[in-house]
Amino acid sequence: xxxxxxxxxxxxxxxxxxxxxxxxxxxxxxxxxxxxxxxxxxxxxxxxxxxxxxxxxxxxxxxxxxxxxxxxxxxxxxxxxxxxxxxxxxxxxxxxxxxxxxxxxxxxxxxxxxxxxxxxxxxxxxxxxxxxxxxxxxxxxxxxxxxxxxxxx
Length: 153
Hints:
Helices cover 24% and strands 24% of the residues.
């Protein structure tokens, strides 16, 4: 069976496009999807085969008081992250594209993370960030899922 799809992921306010044709395993640059059409006026999308993926738009990062907010607030402000991301989210929904939210969360104690974590996971575990069912792991209000959106668990 042949299928094509385009995922547009918002990562730190920047859009990354991933196109895939099921017949090919090479990069999307070599086999661009017909779902994403570029023109001088911008680009158009085929909503029947296009998804927007919103990654970790949670209070720990996005809101004052979040355990990792201070680490990203300068970049968020510089890129108008929440303002721009919420506009893209609205446009994706209005156009009928699939919207997918990818939060992260951990059970109390963060046992899902190694006992010897490194990098950002060390800070997440030590600071008990993104603990399930707590304010920090909740979606920030501007990017909260709506009926019909998909949530990766």
